[in-house]
Design brief:
It is a single chain. Helix 4 links the parallel strand 4 and strand 5 (99-103). The two termini are 26 Å apart. It is built from 14 helices and 15 strands. It is of the alpha/beta class and 380 residues long.
């Protein structure tokens, strides 16, 4: 939000129908999980993504945890992933007793380098977890080929990817499982919230059981069993109906929201072409195989010192810029519970150089001020 002359990094957008739908949920007398708004959101996501089954969750983290359980990850099993990612990916594996195995990212898209995955596979490898950074797709065709060759599960972290595609397919719908996030910093929001995309029919029934505390409660309410009982491990991964009601208002405007974000992304990209030509900062790179959703606009500065000064000087001009992931392989938990394959030079360098710029609906009025501040900062 702009307070005085301050331009914040993020400000949650409301379409105008959220409070109406929340009141309607209360009027319906159904505030716990799997009410009418939950079902409407799930159906919308299934229609838009082509997933066999979509299950709303209370977070993207919860969706990843369900996916890892469904993948059969257990003690000692290894899951290959980037170190440049959010901690939820690694946590989901460690919670099952598994071992995250880190490989480096590509210098262009900042996504997992698919050329390094096969060298990290061992007899204990169970799954591959690519993360579509900034809504720009990973090389999923190559990743799926490696997975099929070695009999591995693919779990897409598409937390940032709603509305983005790879070769015409929605991110999160390509692997065995996908996870979306509706955190307030994402394109489509519900405060907290997420969704598990189940893309193989054989996993649907167990996914419902895991999400419902390990019971077949969903089947019971559909009249498929005469009582519900404890069938498997699980937890309470459902969101409340108020969260789903808020989300429903957002999903109805999803296409327009993403269109506006991409327009702002394009405005930044055109404006900073000269900065890149002068070698002062590098702009993002896109994938030729997909369509992004305008989730993040970042610049890569020459080094950590330059990035630190860039963020500080923007702050002095009342523009908030923030860095992103601190590599997991260097963290205390990463050093204890994970392992790396090969050098992670791109991960270490790019994470130290990246600065994200404000990008939220309503910023259009102030975007030129951000551009002016960036140009003055890098030129000075």
């Amino acid at each position: 939000m702009r307070s005085g002359k301050e331009i914040s990094f993020n400000f949650p957008y409301m379409t105008g129908k959220e409070l109406y739908y929340i009141a309607q949920a209360h009027f319906n007398g159904k505030l716990s999980g799997d009410g009418p708004f939950t079902k409407a959101c799930q159906q919308w996501l299934e229609n838009q993504t082509g997933a066999r089954k979509v299950l709303l969750a209370h977070s993207g983290t919860a969706a990843l945890e369900m996916a890892v359980i469904l993948a059969g990850v257990g003690p000692g099993d290894e899951v290959i992933m980037p170190s440049f990612t959010f901690v939820s990916m690694a946590n989901a594996v460690v919670l099952r007793g598994g071992v995250p195995v880190f490989v480096d990212i590509r210098a262009d898209t900042l996504n997992i380098d698919e050329r390094l995955i096969e060298s990290a596979i061992t007899s204990r490898t169970r799954a591959i977890m690519p993360m579509h950074y900034a809504g720009v797709p990973c090389a999923m065709e190559e990743i799926l080929g490696i997975a099929e060759k070695h009999g591995l599960i693919v779990i897409e972290d598409a937390a940032q990817g709603i509305g983005a595609t790879y070769k015409g397919r929605a991110l999160g719908s390509i692997g065995h499982f996908g996870a979306l996030s509706f955190h307030e910093t994402k394109n489509i929001i519900s405060g907290e919230g997420g969704a598990l995309l189940v893309n193989r029919t054989e996993f649907v029934s167990r996914a419902e059981i895991i999400r419902e505390k390990g019971t077949d409660r969903a089947q019971f309410f559909r009249g498929q069993v005469d009582k519900y009982s404890w069938r498997d491990i699980g937890s309470s991964f459902l969101p409340g109906e108020l969260v789903a009601a808020f989300l429903w208002a957002q999903l109805q405007e999803a296409e327009a929201i993403n269109r506006r974000r991409v327009a702002m992304w394009d405005t930044y990209h055109r404006a900073f072409a000269e900065i890149e030509q002068q070698g002062l900062a590098r702009r993002p790179r896109l994938s030729a195989d997909g369509v992004h959703n305008g989730h993040i606009y970042y610049l890569l500065l020459p080094d950590l010192k330059a990035r630190t000064a860039f963020i500080q000087r923007l702050a002095e001009q009342r523009v908030q810029s923030v860095f992103h992931y601190v590599p997991l392989h260097d963290s205390p938990m990463g050093l204890r519970s994970c392992r790396s394959v090969g050098t992670l030079a791109n991960t270490e360098s790019l994470s130290e150089r990246l600065a994200r710029l404000p990008l939220w609906l309503g910023l259009e009025e102030f975007q030129q001020s951000v551009i002016d501040a960036v140009e003055a900062t890098v030129a000075g």
